[in-house]
Amino acid sequence: MDALPSDQPVRSTKPPDYDVSSEVHQARETLKDATRIHDERQRPDSTFGKVADAINPTAQMASNSGGLDFLLDGVNSLSESLPALVKVLDEISKIHPYIGIVVGAFKVVIELEVKRRDNDKKVNLLFLEMKNMMSALLQLQNVRPNHVGRDGITVGARLEDLVKDAAVDIKECANACDTYMRKRLLVKVIKGAIWDETLKGYVQTFADRKTAFVFALSIHTGMSIDQANDKLDELMNRMDILLEFFQKTSSYEQRTLRNIIQKAGGVEQVLQQTATMQELLDRERPLEDTVQSYRGMGARSLGHFERLRRSARTSHYLSARPSQYHPTPGNAYRESYYPTVPHFARPRTGFEGPSDDEDPRTAALAAELRELKQELADTPAAAMRKNLKIFERRFQMQQREILEEMRKVVIHEGDRVISSVLAGPHERIIDPTLYEIWKDMRWRGIVKARHLVLALHDYYMQKMEDQERDLKLDPSAPRRISEADTWTLKYLGLTELQRIIEALDDDASGYITIQEVNRFATSRPQGWSLLHWLAYWAVGWQLSMTEYKRKIQNLLGGIQRSLETVRAPNRAFVSRYLSVVKRLVDRMTLQFQGNAENIALLPRFQAYIHQEEAQLREALEIAKYDIDALDTLALVNGRKGLEKNLYVVVYLMLLHHLEIIRAGHVVILHLEELIDAETAMTIIEDGYVLRSSLLSALFQQRRLLVHQEIEDFACGMFSGSTVIIVPSDEPSRSLIGNPDEIDLTATQPPFTTLKYPPHLDEFYPVNDDGRADQTDSDNIDDSLQPLLGPWTGLIGVLYQGVPVLSILNAVFHIAPASTDQVVASPLLFQPWTSTHVDLVAEKLESDDGRTYRVTIRGNSSFFSSMYLRLRLSDDGTTLAGYCYPTYDFELPRSPDGAEEKPIPVVLKHNSSPEVMAFYPSTAEREAGRSRALWRFAISAVLYRIRQRNFSWDFIKSRRDRNRRLVSLLYYEAIRDSISGPSLAEESRRLLERALPGDLHFAGYAATDPERFPWILPPCLDPSPNCQHPGLLETTVPCVRCLSCSPASSYPGYGCVFCGVTECLYDHLLYRSPLDSSGQHCIVKTRVLGWTMNAFQEATKKSTVELLDRVGTIRKMISGSSEGADMKPGTTVERGRDPRPSPLMQAKDRLKHNGGQGDKDGDEPQEVRELATMDAGRSETATDRNSRPVLCITCTEKVTLPCWTCAECEESVTICDACDKNGGIDQGTHKSTHTLLLAYPGEDTRSRSVSPYSRSRRRRSPLPVAFAPTAVQTDGSGGVNEQRLEAVEERLTKIEDRFEAVESGVARMERMLAAALAALNVPPAT
To answer: What's the pTM?
Structure first.
């Protein structure tokens, strides 16, 4: 049987000797078949007889027992009776191929159920009835192939449609069971009654199918329907028995939660009580953990892994806090934080409760509560539709595994043909070498693993010795061992035997059976000898895992490098993925004992390694690389132990994830793309830990030293299962290999690798309709016809605890798969929470027939589904109603028991977002409908006029509004909140009625600030009189300090503060620079997007050089004697130490050469020219130090503080008054040049500072002339005396405190010296 039966019709086939026209031949064949079947059924050891007894083991003895006990016995014995039934049905399908489709489906779902590891009796009851239906097909053993009934129809034609329908029912039931098992514990309890009804429906379906099978077969067998029915059929038709079964078989955990719900007043009351729901959530987690600890880790329910995904999603946002930024002079402008989606991109409906200032645990609990309510809103039918794609993949993977198991039985040349087993158990061994060893050792059906492997070793060593002896006697003698396999004997030593034992002993029991020997022999690659196969497990597997370990580390290094090049919105998710996955991978790989010495042997095994990798890649591609549970991992890995393929699976998963990250260089990834990738890697680690725990249990059962055995097993691969890897801030530190091997930009990344569609990069699409290409049919319910077409309206969302109106723009089309629904897919409705949003509208039963339910769902768990109950107006132009959080339009209750109000919604037909942005809210219409509508009409008309004129004022106003909104959202994203009521109110005002395109653009820019340099930073040191306590109004001009730590997530801006003098003064007075100079490098920039890195690259000037220039200007203005007292021949270059001038250097060279001048005895020509130039330079320097420094604009004398150009080569000075008028273009100086602030104060770079006076340096030495209000207004310099006295008094108090501290320290030193003297200990010098 090369393939499982497909869904294609199966034609009836006739035996070669079958002749319809020959009645005699037909009668003879009928008699022969009847005799054969009778004889087989009479045999006590016949397969059919055993199965007939195993199908209903309690059918005769349960007549007096209760029906519930009978069902429980059937469920408990299900796992024992299913294999025999499947085996017999396989044999029957060979005789009757048309049933292969239903037998194949039944076999696949049985295998899937076995891998699930959960033992839910509700699900087992469905499989019991499924088995009961399939047992009806056993009657085909009494039917001759292609038997023709009295009506002239063959048995195959009669059953063809029935088996197809039964196969569909089996798959649908398995999908329902899979969906139910994936539900979390609370959902199973709260919606238990609804799920019980759904599951009971499949019981009835299978009962009906069995009846149909029996009826169809009765025509060909002569058996009546009453004879085919048994006690199980009678019980399945009694609903009271089924209900009692479902109740009695509930788990302890479900009963515990159900008792809490009943005490709270029932499900309806619990759903309205937030406090009770939170209590249930608190109780659910330990109960699930109890289930896992009781059943073992392998029994983790699918709901556990769904919870794992939820926790990963929640932690992404709960951990999205700005990191504390402590830069040093070397990294002061390096990106240290990756912004995530701002809060507006996670809009809340009014039913979600918690505010942004709650603690993380409360926020996490609230998020989980929202997801629980969202999951409870889904009906079983909707949940099964969502799960169908996942189940289809799993079904296909299991089908593939069955086929692979059949194909892996390779028939090798020289294999024995088993004809008789009478001589002994060894006759069942296929491989001749193993057969000979087993026979010579006289083993029975089982042998100790070590004995077999030692026997193999001795067998080949003996053959090698015999061969060498024969070749010495006769060089032409035939070889006992092929020359191509001679190299393998070197690696079959005693030290390599352990890995061969692990390959033979699949179950790690320490014993090897004949089945295991045959499985090992037949699984070797085609063309490989047994010696080659043994050498692979002795050394080749270790080499391949060593190579995969190197590749894995290289991939992690490539992902680490991609952090700097991936798009900014993706960095937070890539960074978290790397930190989590790096820890998991280190745990699974660091303890592995590699073998780099024999790496040259790897090409000998490369063909098989590539073959295995290709098979695993194919399995992962079927699974879409979505490992969502341990049973999915088991389907990918196959029937081998996880250690055989662990590193290959990890490598292929990381390679796929790297492709996703490479796509993140081009597009903005879906929020859950890397979250699901991280979850998949976590589940692989769970499988790793599970395998380690199972091995430990086996070793403990065998009374071995568990720790030592784990260290030896699989080259120490599982030693890391007991090691806790501490997350590292720098993942690249522990990387091995060469990450540069990973090319991140070699080719265009395939976007088909993405699980979700990426975010839309087009801010203002021409058409907001995501279904614009859909062709609508005319087949639609008349009541839905008015909904077709474009609709635009307002829907409320909760932002910072205050409702904000958001614009919804949708175009409804006829649903492709339903005539009683219309659908819309707007591109720009909350585009940052999901990448695809669907609105599904359907009619509700009402008196007027004009009421509809509109369900809004996104393809992300961050998107909170909304359910709108809308009524169509009489003129058909308005849909008005309310938004609810549940499908049944139920409203939650506040902690005091009051029912919350629904959110109003209004939609207008054939309107535009620009017009609906001015539509009055419900409160405004209730306050005065006429006035509100008039205001709406006037505002909309005026906007249309301004839009049509498209003036610069209109463009600038919209641009400034968007930039301000982006800056606020970015500020909120990095700080997780908006500080100050004014900023919060401004943020809400800008978000209110924002156009969908503008909102989309704002969210994009807020998460990708590198591309938008005009984002406004906050003032770092706001004073009480700061005019911009939140964000600056503009960054042109912008005042920055390059010597101090910048604000978190604004490293490129430097330490920014507004232009208010008080803020600048407070910064200079109370903030200490990062370096030891004690000076602040204050610059003013007039270039959008200015950064220190770009400035340094363009000008090649460091902060030290800029401070040198400031010091030079300060000395020039203050008339320092350092410049006036310089001797001729000395040059001062921007505050550096004096150095010999070119004249002095020329004279020194003359002396060094012997002091010879010209032939006339005069100085050389070079010395005379330099003396002339030096005389002029000295005169100029003297004049410059004696003349006042003038402003290049007003030519007035400049006093401190003032500005000097940081880019011009010559000295350019600008007074503060001229600079306030804007940028200056004068000569070579441009208005866009960076300016340096020269403020009064002494240069402390060369001053030694005592450790006890470090606190003094917290205050830069500023004279009172630079006090905020001490701005000189005339030559005499009038000041605000009151303000000046307050500042002086403040400084005096600070000085007094410092002196007191120094006095105390000196007193302590004296006391310590006295104590040491008393102890005769000399004081330290």
So the answer is: 0.73
